[in-house]
Amino acid sequence: MLKGSLKKKKKVRLVDPIYEDKISWDEFYSILNSIYDEILITDSKGIICFVNMACERLYHIKSNELVGCNVKDLERKGIYSPSVTSKVFRTKCIETVVQTAADGRKILVTGIPVFNEANELTQVVCNSRDLTELIELRQEIEEKNRLIQNFTQEIRRLKTNNINGLMLYAS
Predict the structure, then answer these.
(1) Antiparallel, parallel or unpaired: β 121-130 and 38-43
(2) What is the rounded CA–CA span in Å between residue 93 and residue 163?
(3) What does each C-alpha distance from 99 to 2, 37, 49, 116, 153 come to in angstroms?
(4) Cα torsion for 63, 110, 117, 91, to the nearest 10°?
(5) pTM of the model
(6) What are the tens digits of pLDDT across the range 60-110?
(7) DSSP for 9-26, written as a single string
(8) Which residue from 38, 85, 82 is spatially nearest to 59, judged by alpha carbons?
(9) Which of 92, 94, 56, 59 is nearest to 74 (CA)?
């Protein structure tokens, strides 16, 4: 279960009681916003309760504009597809998908269900990371490997022709 409420402006309760009352909401909020990956939390209806500022880099939408939006509506509007949160609601399991953002970038998103004491799904916590650059680098490496393979085959062919040519000349 998610400890503490993101709507409270007081202290955030952490899992380890040793640290209880050691971090303020403002400090916790700053920490969440300093994370490179997007962190997004929805309620049991798919309404975004919290999203850190990384969403601005991934989707080009300010975090305060996303809070209160339904993830299904964002998917229908083409902000991203598919919605990992919707998949988590269906399966009630941790799910990972590669989303396509409106600008075509590929984003790896993992959704984690959060259950209450009655084992009811109450929230989904999502972690998102842009894979576009990684995918482009992999494609570039694959192209370079194809070139190396072609050059290697050509060198072998030239060596074979050269050896055959020398043998013909020597006979």
Answers:
(1) antiparallel
(2) 63
(3) 25, 14, 20, 28, 38
(4) 120
(5) 0.69
(6) 999 999 999 999 999 999 999 999 999 999 999 999 999 999 999 999 999
(7) SSBPPPSSGGGTTSSBHH
(8) 38
(9) 59
